[in-house]
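Work package 3, deliverable 3.1, input record:
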Amino acid sequence: MSNRGLEGKTALITGASRGLGKAIALALAQAGARLILVARDFELLTQTADAARALGSQASVFQTDVTDETQIQDMQREIAGEFGRIQILINNAGMNIRKPATEFTLPEWRQVIDTNMTSAFLICRSFVPLMKGQGFGRILNLTSIMSHIALPGRTAYCASKAGLLGFTRALALELAPEKITVNGISPGPFATEINTPVMQNPELNQQFVSRIPLGRWGQVEEVGQLAVYLCSEAAGFITGTDLLMDGGWTAQ
Ligand SMILES: NC(=O)c1ccc[n+]([C@@H]2O[C@H](COP(=O)([O-])OP(=O)(O)OC[C@H]3O[C@@H](n4cnc5c(N)ncnc54)[C@H](OP(=O)(O)O)[C@@H]3O)[C@@H](O)[C@H]2O)c1
């Protein structure tokens, strides 16, 4: 694959203001893709866009809450007008609330499910029509090792990520005739804001690292490189599956 293998492709990435979404955006920029960056924090999104432009990519910013159907529809109209078509869609926005199931309020439960799973449905419903008819397309959903295994205190997160994996598989079958592939990337522990509660607690941090056979946290750039590969022409026979990048955690 050439360094600029995604030249000519337009990629929409949710949760591009920080963490894995930002790293994926910058890896795609490096590979030549034009970026549509989506999240709620305009300031941070602008920083991602500036970094992408410094890598030679065009980047546009959309301040959108991915749990809000109306905001997504408004964004879709604007993007359809400005870009016409897109080729790559990355549902990365996510969040976590860690507590026992019996302590969850219904709004908290719904916030996790809406952010991690329903958002992918809303975004795909709006943007798949802009992807069809090109004989090429790539959708990546940021699933998790929690799509496959579980930890206590993660009921909402595990439910949302297992659901997202099911959504990924079914959508892959629906879109295969269009040659649009749909896959999950399941990260293990990566040192981003979502894991601050673990990283800031030395005991928990040590417990986490001791469960990772490779003995370290993942680096966000590693997910970026996997995303570039899955979005490339070379990955055209991979669909309806989920790539674990977890330092060996789930092999145990
Ligand atoms: N880090 C890990 O170890 C790990 C492991 C497995 C899976 N994952 C998954 O990977 C994805 C990225 O995680 P991360 O570690 O990069 O998390 P992060 O650093 O907390 O970033 C989360 C991103 O999601 C965006 N977001 C959250 N709620 C949103 C909403 N309602 N509307 C629009 N954007 C929203 C945030 O942007 P704004 O706040 O600006 O809106 C931010 O850009 C998530 O789906 C996460 O579940 C992460």
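The chain is about 45% helix and 15% strand.
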